[in-house]
Every structure is written in structure tokens, then in C-alpha cells.
Specification:
By secondary structure, the protein is of the alpha+beta class. The protein has two domains: 587 residues, 3-Layer(aba) Sandwich (Kinesin), CATH 3.40.850.10; 283 residues, no CATH class. The protein is 46% helix and 10% strand. Strands 1, 5, 6, 7, 8, 13, 16, 17, 18 and 19 form a ten-stranded mixed sheet that branches. The structure holds adenosine-5'-triphosphate. Adenosine-5'-triphosphate binds next to helix 12 and strand 15.
């Protein structure tokens, strides 16, 4: 395709059309739309001339806007002589009793998207009607719903006013005047549902407005061609062509005639002729003339038709990226508000435009849109925000508000600030916003209108749009991709303006003041438009003009009123323009005539002619603000929102990640801390347990050695030490494997130095003495080689006292070493659990737990004292043993050696083959002496010593019992005390 060509009638050879505007890109979706509808009978009917239409690139649809344009327009409008002058002799009129008061219902009364009425059932459905309206009703339904309530205009026209040119169907007027924006709403010439997106035959000026918007993708160049073609049959075609080359095709001027309720006598026909077909209004009175416009709506035309012909195409253009302005101009009470707002049953331009805007959005999936709306009024030359939240109406009059100022910059042109803009997402929402503004607008009853608008009201809908990714996917993934790679944002503005009506001086002072402001601003508007014509030749087609007419500012009094200042961008060529002028025609003697409407009507007609003739528009599609920076398209909220959303999403992701990481870290830290704490606690517990176990083990071992040793020696019996000793020795030696018995553990040997005296007497002592207390038995066989620890060379234990002393000393050394070992371990344990211990200690101190620190210290002191007492015991024991040894030495002087043999006999087998026996022989003191009758003294000493030892051993045994003392606390006490 790619190029779908639409039928175009052959036309005379004219210069190639040079449309004032560049070709408009059309979404591909349009192609489908077109295709679906262009395959209709109308399409085939026009197929013969399809080649004449510009080809469609990229599958774009073709517009039906390429309509022939009425040739008379320019000639008439340009001809000042043709404009009838006002008749100053017209008598001032007064409001007749029968005048219909304005009963316009604000669009607030229909919050839901309006349903058009008044269209005939034969209206072809809009191509947009294939999709539902926002309220769910298709446009077709909307249109057909209203068709019953409004009679066919043709029939009514014929009936009421046979002199008014009817628009019989299908009419193929050779004067059909195509326009960039115009497209007459007449659709009855087109079969229903068939050719909504196709151009009317060249001769038909009554091309469907719907058709025009259905094919709004048509480039302006196309229109230029059509205009040229349309003019070909008219002697004024050349003029029209040049006019459109000047950009006139972007300006539509329509005149709407309001029905005159008081005119039932047909007299109006005598003075006025309204020919909707020719789009002309003719005044036949004095200085009369014919006025021809793009559209003339007679009294039977309803709002829907007015919208279709005068505004629909412009609205579609705005959605495509052009700026567009629609305003209603006319005398008070002639139907401006009625046309712009409409009623619940007959919605006007504003609600119908809103419906179309959202229809367009729905049908343009390859672009995304953002709409924002503002609503202001110019009242007594001051601008007020009708959407401002502090707009509170008091007794029907809005409260005073902050004045809005007009500013201008290169990007935005002239704009009001500060002005509230509301972003809207549905037709209902948009209608409600506007209804809110309507309620805040100043209205008052006047002589001519019970609810007269006392201000100029401007609804501005800013349309931001941006191309979505190719393919226009609507999936979430596509949306995301689109958000990630934003294209340029195009910003266009649709201004819908309901001007206050010009009026004669009122009696009421307030109304007079309002009226003077209204009239002044309207006068300025008229002046600006009138002067546009003087500049048009210079400006037309020039870059200066395209730039917005900045140079014109020097000549044109835009700044004389806020209205003209606000309209400056539109009037100076940057916008597509549609002007709807409303008049009320009264015949001689009618109500309207009685109110001097004729003069005002003629003024309005002249204004409309000048506007059509003078306003030059070189509206261009707004550039897409490329780049994603905040500067690009400073007003493009769409971009900013996209960026903001992306930024927020990014932040949210980061925050989520940070939160997750933190939580993980926190969990990990907590876990680690818990583990560490548990580990520490466990380690400490294990260490303590180990320590305690070791201490207990050693202590038990040690004490066991003592006990066993004591038992083996028989010290707990009443028998004599020597006999016990011998007995023991016998048992020990009964296996004939005599070995010296160590009096102590091998470890003890090295740590305690044995006194020389004991050492020398150890082998010679004949005193029987118990075996070494600790570890003796366990050491037998292992440490038996230690010669110093021999029980006695003579085998009777006479050397046992010295051995005993050394054993005790060794035991003492053992204990000291043992304590040292415990100390080391405790210190080690303390280091690892220092903090914990100190903490628990401090807690104990603070909380007074377990009696507090004092109790602990006392406990430790007691343990220290206990240990000291034990040491003292040992010292005493050692001293007693030494003392006994000395006594024995003294007694040795009178020893009877006879007993020695007995003694020897008793231990005969032991002494034999023993090294110890040889030692014993050489000993200066025989151990037997201790047991002989001559050694009574020494025997007494031994008994005493034995007793002491018994006590000590039993004491230790008691102490070793777990129930009788806490090893752990004892150990701790020792370590802590040191
Ligand atoms: N075409 C029409 N068909 C039926 N009624 C109409 C038409 N035009 C206007 N009217 C009625 O005429 C009355 C005045 O209309 P409207 O208020 O729209 O005039 P206006 O031009 O806005 O006046 P003003 O400038 O004072 O605000 C209203 O009651 C309205 O319903």
C-alpha cells in the first residue's frame, strides 16, 4: 500500500495545490479504520477518481476533507461593498413578552458523556462509532438516539421557509468548498455507515462532517487540491485558491441562525434569506447583501450538526498535534452558550469535543496521551480561574479571587498564570471539571437574556501525546518498554471559548459596567481582525507570520484587551481556528427586529466575513519535544510524569533492595551475634565444665591415691604401724616381685626438695612407717625404680618416716602445682569470658544477686582460710614426723638388736634379693628398733604421729567428697585469691 487512494473527481487543470500545512502523519490504525469503512459502497462508488487523491504513505488513511469549497466565500467576504451596512434607523427593540428566555442547561447537568440529538437517522455513523463511547454507548447509538427528537432539517425548512435554499440530498454542489477544517455536517447524501471516512463527491458541499473527522488524516495539501477543484466551477475559484494558499483553509467561519420564537408570520422571509446549502445569509433590506461563509446553520440545525461541521475536524487536528481554537461570537442571547455548552438533550461543541477527544485516544493505540484542562473567564478585564478551589459562589456570584496575569514566552506563547490545570482521564471527569467551571462563571439576567454570560469563558484542553513503541503493544511489557524509551512529547492545545455577547447599554449599573468591558474587548477583537487584513499580504506564507506574528504586535492592538491578548496565538496564525457567529434574525415587526437585532446581526455578519477573510493560519503540527530531559518540553507533563514515575520506581526498587539487604544483614548480624554469644557461652560453659571436671578428677585421683595409700598401710586400724606396714609389705611382696614403692607421684619428686637429713636417714631408718599416702599404690611398678622412695632397705619400714615426710612434702608440691595449673586455666577461662563475667558480676553487684559481692568475697576468704589451715596441718605433720624422727634417733642408743631378727624374719622374703635390704643393713638406725620393747618412747611418738596423720587423711577424704565441698568454688577461691 501502502497507499490507499480515494476517489477523486476529475478536475480542471489548475495549478497544483499548495496546502498551507504539511502533510499529517497518520497512524497506521487509521488505515484499518479506513479500510474497514472505505470498503463501503461509497468507496466503490467513488473508486473511479481514487487516483486523484494523494497516496497514503505508511498505510495512512485518506481524509475526506478534500472537499470542494464554496467559491463565493472570498468574493463576498472581501467585498466591503457587499457587506450591508447597519440601518441606523432601525428602532431599538425591547424584549417582547413572548421572547424565549435562555434555558441552556450547563453540561454539568450531564456528567456522563453526552448523547447527541438532532442528527437524522440517516447520518452515517462515525468511523469512531465502531468503538464504544466512554459511557459504553456507541456514537451511532448516541446519534440515532437524538434523531427522533429533531425533525429533518430539510423537511422543516421546506415547510417553514420555502425560500431558504434547501439542501436536498444527495446534493452535489459544484460550489462545495473544501476546507482544512470545514466539512459540512450534512451526511444524508451518504449512505449510512458506508463512507464515513471518504470524501464527498467533489460537487457536494455537504460532505459529511463525520466523514471529515473519520478521515482526518488527510493532509492539508489534499484539502488545498480539493479546494482548488471545488473552485474550478466557480468564477471565484481563483480567489479562493489564493485565499487558501494564504492559509485560509485553516480558518473556518460559520454562522448560526437562532430561531426567533416570536416570528411566526413569515415576515422574516421578506428581509432575510438563509441558504444553508450555499452557506449564505442574505439581507434584503436597505444596504443589503449576501454573506457567504464556510457553514451557515439555519434554525433547524442542531448542536450536533454544528459541531460536526464547525469543530469536529479541528478537534481531531488538535489531537494530532495542532493548536486549535473554537470561539463563539455574537450578540447577547443569540445562542453562543447554547452552541458551546448545549443542553442535556442537545450537547454543544464542548461536550461533543470531549467525547471525540477520548474516542480519538481510544483509536490511537500507538500513542499515549495526557490531558489537562483549565478554565478561566475574563470578567471586567480581569482573569479569574474558574477551577480554583477558592471559587465559592456567594448568592450566585463567585467570590473574589486572585487575579490571573497573562504572560508570554517563546514556547508557550501567551498563557495565563497562575492557573489551575487538572489532569483528566475520562470524558466524565473532564465534563465534571468543566461543569464546575460553568457553575463558577458569572452570569446574570439581562434585558435580552435571563442568564446572560457576563464574561468571556475559555476552556483550554492541553493534549500531550507521545509515540509508543512500534507495534503499539498494550501489554504490560510494552508499556514498560515504552516508559523506558520515551519518545518526543507533542503538546497541543484546544481552546473552546464562549464569548460574552455584545449588548446595548443596560439600565443596571453593574450590567452597564460589564457590558462596557464586554463591548470594549469585542471591539478590540474586531479591530485586530480587521487590521489583520492589512497585514495579510505581508505576512501570508512568510516565516515571520509563521513565527506567530510577533512583528504584527507593533501594528495590532492585541494588548488592548485581555481577550485579544489571549487569542493572539490563534489570530496570528499559529492555530487552526473555527469561529461560530450566532445571529438572530427577525423580520420586520418581529421580536428580533424590534430589538434592533438587524443592526447587530449585520455587525456580526461583517465580523464573520472579516475573520474569514483576514485571519491567516499557518498552523503547524507541534514538534515533538525530543529528549527526555526536564527542559525538553518544559510543559510536557507526560514526559515529566514518565520520568517521575521511572525515578520513583527506581527509588522504590532501591529502597526495597536496601530494605531487603538491611533486613538480611540485620538477620545475619543477629544470627551471628546469637551464634557468637551462644558459642561464647557454650565455650565458657565447656571450659568451666572441663575445668571443674579436670579439677574434680585430679582432686579425686589425688584423694583416691591418698585413700588407697592409707588403706594399704592399714593406718585406719588399731594395729601398730610396723605390723601394718609389714603386713602390707607382705601383701605387696607376696608375689615375690619386690619393688620399691614410691611414696609420691613422680611429678612430686622434682618439685619438692627433700631435706638432707631425711634423705640420709631414709634408707637407715628402722622405724616402721606407713606407706606414702598419695599415689603410692598407683606408682608401684611404675616408679618403683626410684631408689629414694624405697620403703626401707631393711624391708621393715624403719625408713618410712623419712619417706613419709618426703611423701607429704611431695604431696604438698603436688597440690601447689595442681593449684598452679588450676590458676592458669582459670585465667584462661577468665580472659575468654571476661566481659561476660564482669557483666554478670556487675549485675550481681547491682542486683545484689546471691548476697552480692560481699558474700562472694566472704566465701572466697573462707576457702582461702581453709586451704591455709590445710597447709598448716601439713606443716604440723611434717614437723611431727621430724620430731618423731629425732626422738627415734635418740632412742636408738639402747636398741636391742635381738628383735631385729624377728623383724627381719617377718620380712625375710621381702628383704631377700632386694636392693633395699642392703641399704637397710647399712643404715645406722635400724627400723626394727621402733618396734622393740626398748623403744617405748619412740613407739609413743609414732602412735601420736599416726594419729595426726589419720586425722589429716580422714579430713582430706571428707573434703574430697563432692558433698562436702565445692571443688569448683574452692579452686576458684584459690585462683581468685591469688
Ligand atoms: N439554536 C437555538 N435553538 C434553540 N434555542 C436557542 C438556540 N440558540 C439559543 N437558544 C436559546 O436562547 C437563549 C439564549 O441563548 P444563549 O444564552 O446561548 O445566548 P448567548 O449568546 O450565550 O447570550 P449571552 O451572550 O448573553 O450569554 C437560551 O435560552 C437558549 O436556550
Amino acid at each position: 500500500m501502502a497507499t490507499t487512494t480515494l476517489p477523486r473527481p476529475s478536475r480542471p487543470s489548475l495549478n497544483p495545490p499548495t496546502g498551507p500545512l504539511p502533510s499529517l502523519p497518520v497512524p497506521k490504525s487509521r488505515k484499518n479504520s479506513i479500510g474497514s469503512t472505505s470498503g463501503s459502497t461509497e468507496s466503490s462508488r467513488r473508486g473511479s477518481s481514487a487516483s486523484l487523491l494523494p497516496s497514503i504513505t505508511g498505510g495512512r488513511a485518506v481524509s475526506s476533507s478534500a472537499l470542494p469549497q464554496r467559491p463565493q466565500q472570498k468574493t463576498h467576504s472581501n467585498s466591503t461593498s457587499s457587506v450591508p451596512t447597519l440601518n441606523p434607523n432601525d428602532p431599538p427593540s425591547t424584549l417582547p413578552p413572548g421572547k424565549t428566555l435562555r434555558k441552556t442547561i450547563s453540561i454539568g447537568a450531564f456528567p456522563q458523556p453526552p448523547k447527541g440529538v438532532g442528527r437524522t437517522a440517516s447520518h452515517p455513523p462515525s468511523p469512531l462509532s465502531t468503538s464504544s463511547t466512554p459511557t459504553g454507548a456507541s456514537l451511532d447509538q448516541r446519534l440515532s438516539a437524538g434523531s427522533k427528537s429533531v425533525p429533518s432539517r430539510d423537511s422543516s425548512l421546506r415547510k417553514k421557509s420555502p425560500r431558504i435554499s434547501g439542501r436536498g440530498f444527495p446534493l452535489k454542489s459544484p460550489l462545495t468548498s473544501p476546507s482544512l477544517l470545514s466539512g459540512n455536517g450534512e451526511t444524508r447524501s451518504v449512505s449510512s455507515g458506508a463512507l464515513l471516512n471518504l470524501p464527498s463527491p467533489p460537487q457536494s458541499r455537504n460532505s459529511s462532517a463525520q466523514g471529515s473527522y473519520a478521515t482526518s488524516a488527510t493532509t492539508f495539501d489534499d484539502v488545498g487540491e480539493e479546494e482548488t477543484r471545488g473552485r474550478s466551477d466557480n468564477k471565484r475559484g481563483a480567489d479562493r485558491h489564493s485565499l487558501h494558499k494564504d492559509g485560509k483553509g485553516n480558518v473556518i467561519v460559520s454562522v448560526r441562525v437562532r430561531p426567533d420564537a416570536g416570528s411566526n408570520d413569515g415576515k422574516q422571509e421578506l428581509e432575510w434569506e438563509v441558504n444553508a446549502k450555499r452557506s449564505s445569509v442574505t439581507y434584503k433590506g436597505r444596504e443589503g447583501g449576501e454573506y457567504i461563509y464556510d457553514n451557515v446553520f439555519d434554525t433547524q440545525d442542531n448542536n450536533s450538526r454544528v459541531y460536526d461541521a464547525a469543530a469536529k475536524r479541528l478537534v481531531r487536528r488538535v489531537m494530532e498535534g495542532y493548536h486549535g481554537t473554537v470561539f463563539a461570537y455574537g450578540m447577547t442571547g443569540t445562542g453562543k452558550t447554547f452552541s458551546m455548552q448545549g443542553t442535556a438533550t442537545s450537547p454543544g461543541v464542548i461536550p461533543l469535543a470531549i467525547t471525540d477527544i477520548f474516542s480519538f485516544i481510544r483509536e490511537t493505540p500507538h500513542r499515549e496521551f495526557l490531558l489537562r484542562v483549565s478554565y478561566l473567564e475574563i470578567y471586567n478585564e480581569k482573569i479569574h480561574d474558574l477551577l480554583s478551589s477558592n471559587t465559592t459562589s456567594i448568592n450566585g456570584q463567585p467570590a473574589l479571587q486572585e487575579e490571573i496575569k497573562l504572560r508570554e514566552d517563546s514556547k508557550r506563547g501567551v498563557y495565563a498564570t497562575p492557573l489551575k490545570e487538572e489532569i483528566v482521564q475520562s470524558p466524565t471527569q473532564l465534563l465534571r471539571v468543566i461543569a464546575r467551571g460553568d457553575n463558577a462563571r458569572r452570569v446574570a439576567g439581562t434585558q435580552f437574556n435571563a442568564r446572560s454570560s457576563r464574561s468571556h469563558a475559555v476552556v483550554q484542553i492541553v493534549v500531550e501525546s507521545r509515540e509508543r513503541i512500534p507495534g503499539g503493544g498494550t501489554s504490560l511489557q510494552d508499556s514498560k518498554r515504552s516508559a523506558i524509551a520515551p519518545g518526543g512529547v507533542r503538546v497541543s492545545t484546544l481552546s473552546l471559548i464562549d464569548l460574552a455577547g455584545s449588548e446595548k447599554a443596560a439600565e443596571n449599573k453593574e450590567r452597564r459596567t460589564e457590558g462596557s468591558h464586554i463591548n470594549k474587548s469585542l471591539l478590540t477583537l474586531g479591530t485586530v481582525i480587521a487590521r489583520l487584513s492589512s497585514d495579510k499580504d505581508k505576512a501570508a506564507g512568510s516565516e515571520k507570520d509563521k513565527a506567530g506574528g510577533a512583528n504584527k504586535d507593533k501594528h495590532l492592538p492585541y494588548r488592548d484587551s485581555k481577550l485579544t491578548r489571549l487569542l493572539q496565538p490563534a489570530l496570528s496564525g499559529n492555530s487552526l481556528v473555527s469561529i461560530l457567529c450566532t445571529i438572530q434574525i427577525g423580520s420586520t415587526g418581529s421580536i428580533a427586529a424590534a430589538h434592533s437585532h438587524t443592526g447587530e446581526t449585520l455587525n456580526t455578519l461583517k465580523f464573520a466575513s472579516r475573520a474569514k477573510n483576514n485571519i491567516v493560519s499557518h498552523a503547524k503540527k507541534a514538534d515533538e519535544a525530543l529528549g527526555s530531559g526536564a527542559d525538553a518540553g518544559s510543559r510536557a507533563l507526560l514526559d515529566r510524569y514518565r520520568m517521575e514515575i521511572q525515578e520513583l520506581r527506581k527509588q522504590l526498587d532501591e529502597q526495597n533492595k536496601a530494605k531487603e539487604t538491611k533486613e538480611e544483614e540485620k538477620d545475619e548480624e543477629e544470627e551471628k551475634a546469637r551464634e557468637l554469644e551462644a558459642e561464647q557461652r557454650h565455650g565458657e560453659q565447656m571450659l568451666e565444665m572441663q575445668l571443674a571436671r579436670t579439677a574434680l578428677k585430679e582432686r579425686i585421683e589425688h584423694l583416691n591415691r591418698l585413700i588407697l595409700s592409707s588403706k594399704s598401710l592399714g593406718v585406719n586400724t588399731n594395729r601398730s604401724f610396723s605390723s601394718m606396714s609389714l603386713q602390707n609389705r607382705n601383701s605387696v611382696l607376696s608375689n615375690g616381685d619386690f619393688a620399691p614403692v614410691s611414696a609420691r607421684s613422680s611429678a612430686s619428686h622434682a618439685t619438692l626438695e627433700v631435706p638432707a637429713l631425711n634423705r640420709t636417714s631414709s634408707g637407715a631408718s628402722g622405724t616402721s612407717f606407713p606407706s606414702p599416702p598419695a599415689g603410692a599404690s598407683g606408682a608401684i611398678g611404675e616408679t618403683g625404680s626410684e631408689e629414694d622412695d624405697s620403703l626401707g632397705e631393711n624391708g621393715d619400714g624403719t625408713a618410712s618416716q623419712a619417706v613419709q615426710i618426703r611423701a607429704l612434702q611431695a604431696d604438698l608440691a603436688d597440690k601447689n602445682r595442681y593449684i598452679g595449673t588450676l590458676e592458669k586455666r582459670l585465667l584462661q577461662a577468665r580472659r575468654s569470658s571476661h566481659s561476660r563475667v564482669s557483666m554478670s558480676l556487675s549485675q550481681r553487684i547491682v542486683g545484689g544477686e546471691d548476697g552480692g559481692l560481699e558474700a562472694i568475697i566472704k566465701e572466697k576468704d573462707a576457702e582461702i582460710a581453709d586451704l591455709r589451715a590445710r597447709l598448716d596441718d601439713k606443716d604440723r605433720m611434717v614437723a611431727a614426723l621430724r620430731s618423731a624422727a629425732r626422738k627415734r634417733d635418740v632412742a636408738d642408743l639402747g636398741i636391742d638388736t635381738s628383735g631385729l631378727h624377728d623383724s627381719r624374719r617377718t620380712s625375710h622374703h621381702r628383704s631377700e634379693g632386694s636392693n633395699a635390704s642392703s641399704k637397710f643393713k647399712s643404715s645406722p638406725i635400724s627400723p626394727v628398733a621402733l618396734l622393740s620393747p626398748t623403744s617405748q618412747k619412740s613407739g609413743k611418738g609414732v602412735e601420736e604421729m599416726t594419729r595426726i596423720l589419720d586425722e589429716m587423711i580422714s579430713e582430706r577424704v571428707d573434703g574430697a567428697h563432692p558433698a562436702k565441698g565445692s571443688q569448683r568454688s574452692s579452686l576458684r577461691m584459690v585462683s581468685e585469691s591469688r
